[in-house]
Amino acid sequence: MHFKLLLSLLITIGFQSLVAQENKLWNTKKCAVVLTYDDALNEHLDNVIPALDEHGLRATFYLIGESETLNKRLDEWRSAAQNGHELGNHSLTHPCINKPGRKKPLSPEKDLANFTLDRVVNEIKITNTLLHSIDGKTERTFAYPCGHMKIDSVLFFPYLKGEFIAARGVKRNMMTAGQIDLDDINCFGMKGHTGQEMKQLVDQAIESNTLLVFLFHGVGGGSPLNVSVEAHQELIAYLREKQDEIWIAPLVEVAKYIKTRTPQNKPKTIEKNK
Fold first, then answer.
1. What sequence ranges are listed for the domain NodB homology (predicted)?
2. CATH of the domain at 126
3. Looking at the 3D structure of the chain, how many domains does it have?
4. Which of 13, 42, 58, 261 counts the highest number of beta carbons within 10 A?
């Protein structure tokens, strides 16, 4: 009788320990949250980075090599990298598919339909060289411009494997560490979202022990894909408040953590509320 009771107790303790471990897979935290900002906007330097630095949070900024803001404010981007923010690669010219009905048609030199595989790969490598000259880093992540991953039905990221730790796509999902495809990390794009809506996503990530990646463009202006400074401030204040439960880091660090701890199998997605 005593043996059965002891065995039952040991099983219960073991199960509780396993659950506790599974609930803290993200660098000892319940989940991971990554803040990413695309296109090297003035608003990122003026509104975002000062707010993040004030709260002690670090993020990933995906820079376009030919960006006027990058070229004119180079020292500020270098300073951001020195403060722990990741300067990610968002290509040299940000080429996209020139879809019919597009409000602002793309010029031929930015229409992805006019690009060869070699040109895409080479321009992305050139941008990596530029970024290295700014921050001195040899490890970073990539973000697909407009979410496009192929040239003539051919995936181009496999030709860049030696250049990057991982790549961020645009699919809206949260995933556990073992479900993530490092060639296409999912994210939630923000456009007009309130602080409360963004905090609800954070709560979902905590509850499901998943990775949540935010994709921002404009913050207080700079892009049609915009959120207000107030909503953004509400989010980052909430993240700081929840740091005991959330691992908040640039994507390159989270991707390296995933890479060393999980096999890269075909991912299965967890759909979340939009």
1. 31-249
2. 3.20.20.370
3. 1
4. 58
Query: How many angstroms separate the CA atoms of 233 and 156, rounded?
Result: 36
What DSSP state is assigned to residue 178? G
Which portions of the chain are predicted below pLDDT 70?
A: 1-24, 101, 263-274
Question: What does the pLDDT look like over 27-56, one tens digit per residue?
Answer: 999 999 999 999 999 999 999 999 999 999
Question: What pLDDT, on a 0 to 100 scale, did the predictor assign at position 262?
Answer: 74
Give the angle 194-198-204 at the CA atoms, nearest 5°.
Answer: 145
Considering the entire predicted model, what is its pTM? Answer: 0.88
Task: Determine, yes or no, domain membership for 269.
Answer: no
Residues 6+ apart with CB under 8 A from 119: none
Give me the long-range contacts of 106-115 (CB less than 8 A, separation at least 24). 112/145, 112/146, 112/148, 112/151, 115/151
Structural domain boundaries, residue 33: 25-261
CA distance 65 to 161: 19
Element (H, E) at 151: strand 150-151
Helix segments in the chain, DSSP class H: 2-22, 42-43, 49-55, 68-72, 74-82, 117-135, 195-208, 229-241, 251-261
Residue 46 lies in a domain: yes
User: How far is Cα 239 from Cα 219, in angstroms, rounded to an integer?
Assistant: 17
Residue in the block written with tokens 């595989």: 117
In our burial notation (b when 16+ CB lie closer than 10 A, e otherwise), range 169-190 reads: bbbbbbbbbebbbbbbbbbbbb
Q: Does residue 206 contact residue 179 with C-beta atoms inside 8 Å?
A: no
pLDDT in tens, 189-216: 999 999 999 999 999 999 999 999 999 9
In a domain, 123, yes or no: yes
Question: Do the Cβ atoms of 43 and 105 come closer than 8 Å?
Answer: no
